[in-house]
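Sync notes, pocket subgroup
Present: LS, DG
LS reminded everyone that the earlier model was apo-only. Rerun requested with iron/sulfur cluster included. Inputs:
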Amino acid sequence: MAAMKPITITEKHRRPATQAAWNTARILQLYELPFMDLLHQAQTVHREHHQANAVQLSSLLSIKTGACSEDCAYCPQSAQHDTEGKQESLMALDAVLEAARKAKANGAQRFCMGAAWRSPTARQLDSVIEMVGAVKALGLETCVTLGMLKQGQAERLHDAGLDYYNHNLDTSPEFYGNIITTRNYQDRLDTLERVRNAGIHVCCGGIVGLGESRTDRAGLLAQLANLTPYPESVPINNLVKVAGTPLENTPGIDPFEFVRTIAVTRLVMPRAVVRLSAGRDAMSDAIQALCFMAGANSIFYGDQLLTTANPQFSQDQQLFDRLGLVAAKTEITHNTPLEHNTQAALA
Ligand code: SAM
Ligand code: DTB
Ligand code: SF4
């Protein structure tokens, strides 16, 4: 076997001084670091910006399930795939509140409500706005993910007191067309801009294991890191393979590659809360622990994601105990120009 050439971590692996300077090639250099060096660097940067050993807990509820007009190849809720998932109309307020109370009693800090829509109508938005107000009144942070937003809709959600809007870029611009054809990358960027301009915190990340290359994963992270400012919350989903979706037989990514993706996310967006999102149910405790080491500091907490399984509450509680992790209330950190200077100083 050829001798392994040691790689020194140098300045070039850190964020360059200007805001929009991450590019795919530089991010690939991070991916290529020896695994232990990458994790060490990610955990070091993590501790410079976040409380160590603390993980934020968000619970998820599908308030409108299935029959979605979009063709996202990974998604069990698309009407264009032959999945066995259920189809339900928009939930009643009472049922949403019951789920929110349960999530709060189990320790969740944020309650995320997801709807399988391309984009909400004005009437649908009225109902969601009512839910946001009522969930907030329980003392929970609120997040919704409703698809694309039209002009004025983000402002209405902001005025209702919404804390976060989740809308993912999902993958690189180059790979995107292999996964979704019913809306394009720019549509997603437009929604994100509306959310940002309305003063709502942005929750935006992606999904890996779609058959994309490492270059695509780096390309996604470059897009996210170069948003000005980058998202406050970055969910990284590992594909949950659902029978009947076009991706049901896609080979999964190497778990260490997944951990690398979390670490690189932490390095390119130091202040973001990085959520180890879908895919935990199929992940070993050891890989999840490595993800926390790599800088993940949020999870979806509760037995169910939107339509697929998530680890049981009790299972997560045990994992936290075994790792000495504590549930943490995260503080929202705005990505102000001051922060960019701080990042530059770290470079
Ligand atoms: N319909 C809205 C939208 O697409 O923005 C909101 C819900 S959608 C389910 C939110 C995100 O969930 C997607 O962008 C994708 O990243 C993730 N997701 C969906 N299906 C998934 C799966 N099978 N495995 C992992 N993540 C998934
Ligand atoms: C996100 O990035 N992941 C969550 C949330 N945002 C809405 C959704 C995961 C869905 C996994 C497949 C399912 O349960 O239907
Ligand atoms: Fe619809 Fe969202 Fe699923 Fe795409 S990811 S099919 S938009 S629910």
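DG: Confidence is low (pLDDT under 50) at residues 1-18, 333-347.
LS: Residues 68, 70, 72, 75, 77-78, 116, 147 surround iron/sulfur cluster (ligand 3) (CB under 6 Å).
Action: DG to write up.
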